[in-house]
Every structure is written in structure tokens, then in C-alpha cells.
Amino acid sequence: MNRLEKLFIEKPKDILNIYFTAGFPGIEDTMPLLRAIEKAGADIAEIGIPFSDPVADGETIQKANTQALDNGMTVELLFSQLKEMRNEIKIPIILMGDVNPLIQYGLEPFCKKCQEVGVDGLILPNLPMDEYLLEFKPVFEKYGLFNIFLITPQTSEDRIRRIDENSAGFIYMVSSASTTGSTSGITDEMRDYFDRVDQMKLKNPRLIGFGIKDHSTFTEASHYANGAIIGSAFIRAIKDSEFPAEAGSEYIKSVLG
Amino acid sequence: MLQIENSAFAVDERGYYGNFGGAWIPEMLYPNVEELRQNYLDIIYTEDFQAEFNQLLTDYVGRPTPLYLANRLSEEYNTTIYLKREDLCHTGAHKVNNTIGQILLAKRLGKNKIVAETGAGQHGVATATVCALMGIECIVYMGEVDIERQAPNVARMKMLGATVVPAKSGSRTLKDATNEAMRHWINNPVDTHYIIGSVVGPHPYPDMVARFQSVISEEIRKQLFEKTGSENPDYVVACVGGGSNAAGTYFHYLDEPSVKIIAAEAAGHGVKTDKSAATTFLGKPGVLHGSKSLMMQTLDGQVVEPHSISAGLDYPGIGPLHAHLWESGRATFYGITDDEAMKAGMKLSKLEGIIPAIESSHALAALDYLKPGSDETVVISLSGRGDKDLATYMKYL
């Protein structure tokens, strides 16, 4: 059974998914951060594959991407860092990023590697559903990978149903019309949207991301969905630290309260 | 505007030209792009839209632009060369054909704010212009590097009431301005329309922009017939960055095999150096800015920062239509270096009294490779005028 599937059966509420960019702040931080994320009590780790032109990201994650690439991060290096990962890390692992590095690596070789190192799911925001169904889905399924789709406040009900139909693992609910790292907190408009989607009784669990940054926003997001995703705020917590793993661990503990 | 559904070079239902195109966008952009996709053809082929579009092209842009027989240039190359004078359009380049079309579309979609990216500033000026014309708020993203090298256009945009926002990430040129404009659209999805300036971006942009620019080849056919008795030249030549003036110049000739299609890409310091923007020479298929096309990238799929002396061609990708023209062999591509372009620009200035935009100089420089015969006819798209480039030209004087 895919670790994501198992997780949501065992723990349907208060899921914390932590995003970080591979190769940031240091090129060798991938495994120390994964260990810290698991040990501090997060439920899912989402590893960003850095990209030169991350269109859906705000400044914090853009800069992390640039620094990671400057540090020399590559897809191949990431897979080699994750090679022995499953000897120690038990939580589900998701790779997230622009679809182009995957296409250049090759769809089949990429998915095969994911399975080998123990990746459970992929978030590829600019992979459209139709392209996914046409070309990607059979390969993802062959290697046991869940594809996680995004929905936003502007996504129509029909489309949410269609996304739910084709999703596995969970649905990524983007909290507002924005790039990552917005700091507006949770507004009434968002609450209406969370409620609206909650009442749709989707078959997949939902995690809320974008703008979740601390204990209070995490707790509130968890009230409306199965949990939340934190990215930019985690990056901010580790970016200037001499000991990123420790800083990340402290931050996660503060979020969980 | 011609309906082209039966062409081998028309976009298909999935938004593809052959293997290139599509709408590779994050969900945040889906509702906007889908709204456009569902409505653009219905809107632009209404009588009301066509009437307003054509009237503005005539009375405001100054169309039709002349098709000028360049006698001294023809003599120099011992052939017959016509210049399609897009440089005489209001705002100084072909870009305004598209921005007029898109602002009319945006109005009909109920959008009251416009965002755009710009490289050389021509598209930014053309967007700021139509926004002033319609009284619509306008934000233009422009790379910091381009803001420096195209200062006159920055001043124009500001005078026209637009807000110019510097793109400070990456190479700080056109690709980064495009990233920022897309981010702006993600953050302002409901009231804002994104006017993309080239035949790039997610479907339906490449097709929509090509249709608005197709007025260029529509006029060429008519004008050439009046002058020579034939609608068809032997060659149509245009520079290609993203490829909007090229798409407009080729449009009505795509299915006319007797007309050879020539594309001049910016080779920068040369295609064998790491300072180039010649995408068909150096690129591979990949996904950038919402479509699958050729793009300059590392083995790891990271976008390579391009180089061209011309800000308008300084882009690591190419429109999916052009990638298809390249792959299918319908078009022949030449890589024109910075030096070759500058020399061609100087030559045209001295021989014809026309100072071309450096972008257009790349198309002129292709003549040296083309070597057209004495009985052949060449139509070159003179996509823009060189006023904005004087500082760069002066270094070559």
C-alpha cells in the first residue's frame, strides 16, 4: 500500500506536510532535513526539485530554488541523496516541482527512480490534467506513484469533481488566488471556500496550502480539511540558520504546539 | 482574419501544432486560460469585434502599412526585395496589431485591468498605448537589464500612464518579465487580463496572437498582387524571438508551398558560444511559460539564460507554431549574430534611409545566407523601427 494511502487511513486529521527545496540552504541538507521533519512530528515531507523559473512561487521559494541550483542541485543528485532514505525515513515522501526537469530526465526513468528510492507521490503544478491522463498516468501507476492535483478558490465545482475522480493520495487545496508565501492569514473568503469544498464530500482527503505559517493557521486549516501544507514559512525558518535541521525541527514543534 | 481550421499548420483541438503547444499551466491560471479558450474565437469573429478591430487598425494604427520596393537594397543583392513596413505602425512596431485585438477581447470578457511582459519595450508600449486608449489600468513587467538598454520605451510607457515593474529575478530579461507577469496574473485572476506579446504561452495565446498578427500577411498578399500580379513571393523573411511578427508574416503563406518561409533567430555571439538565443539551434523540446516547445535548457531541464544584442529576441524559447515549422521542415532557420544584425541595420539605414529595430535587422541579415536569385522576390518583415536602439547602434558607428 502506498504510504500516503496508509497515512490518511491511520490518521485522518491534523496532517502536517512540510515542503523544503532540495539543495537548500546547503547542498547536503536533504537527509538531515528529512530526519528532522520526521522526528519533529510532521506527517509528510515534500521535497521541491529546484527550477530556474518557478512561475507559481513567491519570492521566498524562488530564492530557495535559485540558491539550490547555484549550490549545484540536480535531479540525479537528489535521487542519489535519497538512495538509502528508506532505511530510516518512514513517513510518505512527495517530490514537487516544475514538470520540465521530469520530462528531460524521462518520464519512465524518473518514475522508476522514484519507486526505487521510495517516493510516494508527485506534485507537478504545471502538468495539466489532460496531459496527465493521456501520457503520465499509466507510468505513475506502474511505479506506484500518486499524482496530487491542485484546486483553487476559482476551480469550478465540476472541475473539482473531475480532479477528485482522477486524484490519489490527497487533493492540494490552494487557499487563495496567489503565488506561494502569501502572508494574509486565513480570511473569511477562504473559510467560505473551505466550507464549500468540505460540503462536497470528496472521496480524497484534502490538505490546505499557501499562507499556512504557524500554529494558529495550521490548527484552523486542519479544522476545515485533513491537514495543511507549509512551505515558505518553513523555508524562512531555516534559511539563515547555521543549523537548518535544528531550526526546522524547532519550527515544526512550534506549529504542532 | 482568415479562418484556418483546415491548415496543416493550424492549432488542433488540444492546442497543439504537431508536437508542440498545449496549456501547461498551474491550476491557479486554469479558469482564466479556459475562459479565453472557450470564448476567443466566438468573440473575435463577431461582426461587432471585426468592425471595431479593423477600424482601429485603419484609423489608429495607420494600416495598411506600405509594402515598399527597396530599390537600392534590391540592387545590392541583385534581387527584388520588398519591405513590409510594420515599423510605420503607431508605436513603431507590429506589436500593436495584437494589443488592439487583445484589449478589445479583454473588454468583452469584462476585465478592467491589464498585465503584460515586455522585452524590448515595444510590446509594453503597445500595451500601455491601448490601455490609455481604452482607459484601462496597465501594469508592465520588464527585466531590469532591458529597462536599462531600452530607456526610451520605459519613458514612453510611463508617459502613457502604465506602471512599469522591474523583473529582478534570473537573467532580468524577457523570460523573467514573463514569469513575473504570470505571477501577477495568478495573484489577480478575476479582474485582470494578461496580454501576452508573442505567439508563446498556453493555448489559446499562440493561436490568438497569430490571428491578430495575420493582418500582416493578408496585406502583403493584396499589395504584392497589386504591384507584381502575383500574391506570392519566393520568400517571406522575418526575425523570430517568440515569433509574433514572423507568425503574422507567414500566416497566409503557410499552406502555399511555393513560398519559402525564412526565420532569422538571434545567434548572439554565435551558436557555438554560450551567448546566444538561437532556440532551434540550441534548444530541445520542453515546457516553458505554459507550452511545450523548443527551449534552451540544461541537461537537467533548467532554462538557460539567453543572450542577444536585441532585447526583443533575447528569449530562450520560441512559439510552438515555429517549433512545428522547424520540425516539419516548412521553415528554414538561420542564426544571425549580433554583428551581422548590426551591419545589416547600418546597411539598410544608408541604402534606404530606414533605421530598423535591431530585431528586424536580424531578418535583413538573413539575405546574406539566402542569396536570392535575380528573378526572385523576397518580402522581409521590417517589424519595428530603430529609434529605441540608437544607443546600441551608436556603439557600432
Throw out a few tags for this protein.
heterodimer, A: 257 residues, alpha/beta, 12 helices, B: 397 residues, Rossmann fold, six-stranded mixed sheet, four-stranded parallel sheet, 17 helices, 42% helix, 18% strand, lyase (chain B)
How would you characterize this protein structure?
The complex is a heterodimer of chains A (257) and B (397). Chain A has 257 residues and is of the alpha/beta class. Chain A has a single domain (29-256), classed as TIM Barrel (Alpha-Beta Barrel), CATH 3.20.20.70. Chain A is built from twelve helices and nine strands. Chain A has a nine-stranded parallel sheet. In chain A, strand 1 (15-21), helix 2 and strand 2 (44-48) form a beta-alpha-beta unit. In chain A, helix 2 packs parallel to helix 12. Chain A is globular. The two termini of chain A are 30 Å apart. In chain A, 54% of the residues are buried. Chain B folds into two domains: 16-57 and 95-209, Rossmann fold; 62-92 and 214-396, Rossmann fold (3-Layer(aba) Sandwich). In chain B, 42% of the residues lie in helices and 18% in strands. In chain B, helix 2 packs antiparallel against helix 4 (95-108) and helix 4 packs across helix 5. Chains A and B meet through helix 3, helix 5 and strand 6 of A and helix 8 and strand 11 of B.
| CATH 2nd-level architecture of chain A | Alpha-Beta Barrel
Mean pLDDT of chain A: 96
**Going across the major beta sheet of chain B, what is the strand order?**
3-4-14-9-10-13
| CATH level 1 name of chain A | Alpha Beta
H/E element string of chain A?
Answer: HEHEHHEHHEHEEHEHEHEHH
What do the pLDDT scores of chain B average to? 96
Going by helix content, strand content and strand pairing, the class of chain A is alpha/beta
Helical fraction of chain B: 40-55%
Individual helix count of chain B = 17
CATH superfamily of chain A: Aldolase class I
CATH top level class name of the largest domain in chain B: Alpha Beta
